[in-house]
Amino acid sequence: MNLSLMVFPFLLALLPAAAGAEERHLGPHVHGQASVGVSVEADALDAQLSLPGHDAVGFEHPPGSAQERAALDKALAVLRSGTWLVPAADAHCTLVSATVSPHGFGGATEPGGHADIDAVYHYTCHSPARLDHVDVRLAAAFPGLQKIVVDTIGASGSNQQTLQGTASHVELKP
Ligand SMILES: [Zn+2]
Q1: What distance in angstroms lies between residue 118's CA and the mean position of ligand 1's atoms?
Q2: Residue 147 in 3-state DSSP?
Q3: For the chain, is the Cβ count within 10 Å smaller at the N or the C terminus?
Q4: 111 CA → ligand 1 middle, Å
Q5: pTM score, two decimals?
């Protein structure tokens, strides 16, 4: 078992808005705030995201109109593309998989009436030694976001950085 798989669930448990799909410790998330986790080990870059429905689509209930359905489909497509996360170009990372999981937009109601979208991404990097940063361009994709809390884990340890406004640069080796 690699290190990131062991450490990451522990980190996720500490994040108020992020939890696994099977066992979710969903306190009320904070509207306007997304949580991102990034871990790097050897040539693997893994990322996870929890995004409030409020900021992804502007509502937190099953879509009740064609417009709401379209908004949800668009948000899911943007997240599946993974284009909001841009690893350092020199590292030559390739997106291997993206899993996007909406919660609270279907039949089941989430505790507190909230809904959000979780996503998990796996990249492999041809030159991981050059992976010194990632750009988190969530605020450009979802303008309702005011704050993005990014937790990173790498060979040099863990760190937390907060992005506000249009800031997107996240250091991986501070
Ligand atoms: Zn909410």
Answers
A1: 13
A2: strand
A3: N
A4: 10
A5: 0.82
